[in-house]
User: What shape does this take?
Amino acid sequence: MDDTAYSALRKGAAAYLHLDLPLECEAGVVENLTLLEKHATVLEGYLSKAEGE
Amino acid sequence: MSEYTSALDLADRIRRGEVTARAVVAQALEAARTDPFNAFTRMFDSPLDDAQAVDEGRITGPLAGVPFAVKDLFDVAGQVTTAGARLRIGAPAAVQDAEAVRRMKAAGAILIGTLNMDEFAYGFATVNAHFGTTRNPHDPERLAGGSSGGSAASVAAGFVPLSLGSDTNGSVRVPASLCGVWGMRPADEAIPLDGVFPFVELLDAVGPFARTSRDLKVLYEVLSGTTLSGEADGLRVARLDGFFERNAAPEAVRAVDTVMTHLGSDGVAELPEAEGGRSAGFLITAAMGGALHLNTLRGRAMDYDPAVRDRLIAGAMLPSGILAKALHYRDIYRKIFAKLFDRFDILVAPATPVSAPRIDQATILIDGKPASARANLGIYAQAISPTGAAVVSAPVKTSRLPIGLQFIAKPGAEGALFALMHRLEDEGVLGFTQPGGTA
Assistant: This one.
């Protein structure tokens, strides 16, 4: 993630969660957010299928 | 007296005066003190006094004099519940025992200490930045699994015949599989969670470990306050296919085949929604775990285990709309899963996709690509947690590294589930193998 994107993430965390996102966490947080995004996509697919039936 | 004597045999020998509880407990304490696997985090002062009380007849019960230990997220009166976290070391001591601990003591069992875990139970490895890595007694260069790694390793190593852990997404079943011991994730609400440090209350379960299926059954009965009965004859047993086969290593496939062939069953239960159920559980865990820790993260983020911290922060950032969808799909998935029990009584699936990876092994193959070994050890267990079913993780007899299978029953069918476990253990298909031993 580039500096600008992580800065935006930190801004969002501060604004909505009152969480000062440490700079040291960038790699780990981004990796975990990517994993969560993958699971959210999988979930969306199964949910759409279930609701379409 | 072997360190591998079963809990029921120990209780019987103590009751008949063949051995004193004091001798049994002293042996367990000595083993814990010299623990080379880093399973224990703390030993208590009072076990020998309690053992003396058993020998004098002042403490009685079905497990009188049997030593046990607990994952360090169970409250023990007068002790700090660390939940495997450095930042809790200065927390106030618990004022009373967790209900599960109270029930064990009421049955006469003697608590000797606490056991290592992944910080805040968020992991499948028991690699803990503060308390160290718990090593697998079958091969100390390999993972014990987690998050209840100390609980599984202490039983596999012969330190204690019984232990308690907890299972949110597989934290009993994964280490039970890798360490080759019996473990159980009980059905939802079968065992009270009072006094257990929470992770994801919607999915958390107290889980026992043992070296025989009969020990595990008695342990479950003590913890749940029930008496089980059931028959193994006529049970309709089916393997879960698809998702549960896709990423299974040869040893996991072989384990399922061995059991199904032995039972003469070709039943196959289809659950094409399993991947969706797993993702729902994964997202619920991240969001609710993150929410639970958010306040602490605001002030003390750098005091967390870095791997756990980054997972919790990411979870706390999940939009609430995604959590709502995950909760909605969990309800759908539970109904789909429950319908499988119209056709089958017991479902079988690997507990882990592989046997214990080396501690330094970063990846295993998932969908043909290298993926984090530690994150994916629970892939099959995670897909069952949201169903609310009762699950025994049973070690398959093997002369290689251990691996376990999940035997899954609907809530209320635990008696039949254990009857099948006893049969398969008696017939030599399932069972604990001593580290260094042969099947």
Summary: The domain at 237-427 of chain B is CATH 3.90.1300.10 (Amidase signature (AS) enzymes). Chain B touches chain A at residues 273, 275-276, 279-280, 282-283, 286, 294, 297-298, 301-302, 306-307, 309-311, 313-318, 322, 325-326, 328-329, 332, 375 (CB under 8 Å).
